[in-house]
Amino acid sequence: MADDESLTERIVRHARRPKSEAVRARARLHLLDWLGCVAGALRSPVAEVQRAAGCGSAIDRAGWLGNVLEMDDIHRSAILHPGPVIWPTALAVPDAPLDAALDAAIGGYEAMILVGAMFDANHYRHWHTTATAGTFGAAMTAALAIGADEAQCVSALGLAGSVTGGLWQMRHEPVMAKQWHLAHAVRTGRAAAVEAANGITGPRYILEGPQGLFAASCARAKPLALGDGWQLEQVSFKPWGACRHAHPAIDAALTLRAQGQLVLPVHVGTYRDAITFCDRPSPASVVEAKFSLQHAIAIVVARGVPQLADFEPEAIAELAPLRAQVTVAESSAITAAYPAHYGARVSCDAGVVALVDTLGDPERPMDGDAIVEKARTLMAWGGLDDVAAGQAIDAALQGRAVRDVTEIVAQWL
Predict the structure, then answer these.
(1) What are phi and psi of 364, to 5 degrees?
(2) Nearest CA to 104 among 114, 84, 89?
(3) Can you tell me the distance from the alpha carbon of 348 to that of 261, in angstroms, rounded to the nearest whole number?
(4) What is the mean pLDDT of each run of 10 residues along the chain (413 residues)?
């Protein structure tokens, strides 16, 4: 390694390694998971706006939908959702073999997660990491998909990073800006890759330079941590349609319920970011309900395993008395283990359950059958019948060309 080698040069070289059939098979499950999330959002207001606007390809419009239901995949220590940025970028070349798109996506996951994992708490306090790191991930994915060389990939990341962003203010208002963040990351990453391939150069030190992203947004960035495997293999799947920060509490509450010990009142102890994002005792919308620890616990108490309908307005109103009997507070011990582990302690008079990791994490993975079943459930929620769902599942898991997937998405949108 040269003494003056930049972080993006190291990331690019790492992301361009040969991909094995095993990691491609894992990537197909993440592709399927993204397709399920897109299909589940087909009846959402965001989808209605995209249909009415009619801008771009069906994949472009699908790029707005992968995060709508809050069921997209997540990397814990980077605290970001790669799937809804990487897949609409990887599928933008419809005549390509699907294996080529899978390889580009694997490299994109690598770059996005490696960048995101270097951000510190100060960055996450203000910046939507899926957006800021996502622009790098999209640039890496797009550059690999169009066959850019190593220097061009570095320039693509430099160009993309020079205009990346995404502020958390949208959390405080009933808007669609979170979806815009993802669509913007996809568009910007693609554009950066194309311009770099055409000869436009970008800054090599866009991350660590004196006026780079770390200087602008971090108090103390973390070091780059390259591993022997692929970051994709450390990405979690989400079984329930709520913010991932609520999942540990849901998991612990479900365990108590299965033991016949979940009774109100209930107290939740969890890590600081879960409190910051999800201490919401009186949600007034579907989105707010998905970011409410109190509502999540009320669902488990009243209904068991959370379903998407449990976050709709009727359920929000019905469960208000139960939410009032749920209290939440930070646990310093659980915060100390975060973000390597997303944990929670749920307690009531009848019992206590404390979890270090939650269902869908690498330590407690969902198997392939569970991921397929999740996709079927999401597709049914979005209005697809069993035949259409089966076609999408087959395309993701068995398809040979990108067009096998994009033609299905075009039927949806």
Answers:
(1) -135, 65
(2) 89
(3) 8
(4) 84 98 98 98 96 89 96 96 98 95 98 98 96 98 98 98 96 94 97 98 98 98 96 97 96 97 98 96 96 98 97 98 98 96 96 96 96 97 97 98 97 93
Predicted local distance difference test score (pLDDT) of residue 3: 64
- Superfamily (CATH) of domain 244-355: 2-methylcitrate dehydratase PrpD (3.30.1330.120)
pTM of the model: 0.95
Q: What tokens appear for 162 in the block?
A: 């020079």
Q: Pairing state of beta strands 344-348 and 351-355? A: antiparallel
Decide: 237 and 374 in contact? Cβ < 8 Å.
Answer: yes
Residue 259 burial (C-beta neighbours within 10 Å; 0-12, 13-18, 19+): exposed
The domains of the chain are located at 7-239+366-412, 244-355
Return phi, psi of residue 175, to 5°: -130, 175
Rg (C-alpha) for the chain, rounded Å, is 21
- What is the signed CA dihedral for 354, 356, 359, 361, rounded to 10 degrees? 170
At 2 the pLDDT is 56
List the 344-348 sheet strands across, edge first.
326-330, 266-270, 344-348, 351-355
**Could you please report the per-residue DSSP string of 281-332?**
SS--SHHHHHT-HHHHHHHHHHHSS--GGGGSHHHHHHTHHHHTTEEEEE-H
Helices and strands of the chain, counted as H and E runs? 21, 4
CA dist., res. 188 & res. 21, Å (int): 30
DSSP 215-274: HHH-SSPPPP---SS-GGGGPBP--SSS-GGGHHHHHHHHHHHHTT---SSEEEEE-HHH
Closest CA to 328 of 396, 285, 278: 278
The Cα-based distances of 273 to 199, 312, 326, 372 in angstroms read 42, 24, 18, 30
Integer Cα distance of 337 and 351 in angstroms: 23
Contacts of 283 (CB under 8 A, 6+ apart): 289, 291, 292, 294, 295, 316
Q: Report d(CA 19, CA 109) in Å as an integer.
A: 13
Q: How far is CA 89 from the centre of its chain?
A: 14
Contact 190, 146 (CB under 8 A): no
| 7-239+366-412 CATH fold | 2-methylcitrate dehydratase PrpD (1.10.4100)
**Cβ atoms of 301 and 249 closer than 8 Å:** no
